[in-house]
């Protein structure tokens, strides 16, 4: 779930972020331990150095694997060690999508569903059911334009966004991972009208 125009000064929101940040650190430590049990020689200190104060995530662990020569690219680390169902994977803390929408609404942010075809690509009826539920919860936009979506998929998602009266959003989802063929910033984005619509819905933070 994406949140546009987040009120970073919201203490309740920051409290939730703190909880998730602690959960990410615990998850990261457990993944490093699993890798060590597999004979992969990386350390938590190395991962912390790579994160450089940021909230630790799998990309930092993947970079540690690249640095130590276990894989060539970060993508390989996910394919071999860190992806779901891989030996070093650890489930993360998460909110249900409807809960995430509610958190963003309470914050004053604009909730948008991220890369919907990652959730469901084959059963479009099921996808539309999910979108309908999120729309009822307060969803305002749908990520239609995305670097890994084909032209036909973009057109299909534009139709779904129109059907549910959602703002067609998008972006490259650039992670600077250095993987071959990685989509670059500015190569997959929405029309200017999307930006104007989002700005028109922006809500000023309420004084606490």
* CATH fold name of the largest domain: TIM Barrel
Mean pLDDT comes to 91
Number of distinct helices: 8
Cα-atom Rg, whole angstroms?
19 Å
**In CATH's first tier, which class of the largest domain applies?**
Alpha Beta
The strand count comes to 4
Helix/strand order: EHHHHHEHEHEH
Low-confidence stretches: none
Main β-sheet, spatial strand arrangement: 1-2-3-4
The CA-CA distance between the termini, in Å, is 25 Å
Overall outline: globular
Indicate the proportion of strand residues: 5-15%
Q: Could you describe the largest sheet, including whether it forms a barrel?
A: 4 strands, mixed
How would you describe this protein?
- With 208 residues, the chain is α/β, with parallel strands linked by helices.
- The protein has 2 domains: 14-82, DNA polymerase, domain 1, CATH 1.10.150.650; 97-201, TIM Barrel.
- The chain has 8 helices and 4 strands, in the order E-H-H-H-H-H-E-H-E-H-E-H.
- Strands 1-2-3-4 form a 4-stranded mixed beta sheet.
- It is globular, with a radius of gyration of 19 Å.
- The two termini are 25 Å apart.
Features:
alpha/beta; TIM Barrel; DNA polymerase, domain 1; 2 domains; 4 strands; single chain; 208 residues; 49% helix
Layout of strands and helices, then pairs:
Layout: E1 2-4, H1 11-37, H2 44-51, H3 58-67, H4 74-82, H5 97-107, E2 110-113, H6 124-137, E3 141-146, H7 151-163, E4 167-171, H8 192-201
Parallel strand pairs: 2-3, 3-4
Antiparallel strand pairs: 1-2
Helix pairs in contact: 2-3, 3-4
């Amino acid at each position: 779930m994406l949140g546009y125009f987040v009120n970073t000064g919201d203490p309740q929101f920051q409290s939730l972020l703190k909880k998730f940040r602690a959960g990410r650190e615990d998850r990261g430590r457990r993944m490093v331990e699993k890798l060590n049990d597999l004979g992969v020689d990386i350390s938590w200190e190395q991962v912390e150095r790579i994160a450089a104060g940021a909230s630790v995530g799998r990309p930092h662990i993947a970079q540690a694997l690249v640095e130590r020569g276990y894989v060539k690219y970060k993508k390989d680390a996910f394919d071999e060690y860190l992806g779901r169902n891989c030996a070093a994977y650890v489930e993360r803390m998460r909110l249900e999508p409807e809960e995430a929408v509610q958190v963003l609404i309470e914050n004053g942010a604009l909730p948008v569903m991220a890369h919907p075809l990652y959730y469901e690509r084959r059963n479009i009826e099921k996808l539309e059911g999910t979108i309908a539920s999120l729309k009822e919860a307060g969803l305002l936009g749908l990520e239609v334009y995305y670097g890994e979506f084909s032209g036909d998929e973009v057109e299909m998602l534009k139709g779904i966004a129109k059907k549910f009266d959602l703002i067609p959003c998008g972006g490259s989802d650039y992670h600077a991972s250095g993987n071959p063929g990685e989509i670059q910033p500015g190569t997959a984005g929405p029309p200017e009208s999307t930006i104007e619509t989002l700005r028109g819905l922006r809500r000023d933070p309420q004084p606490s």
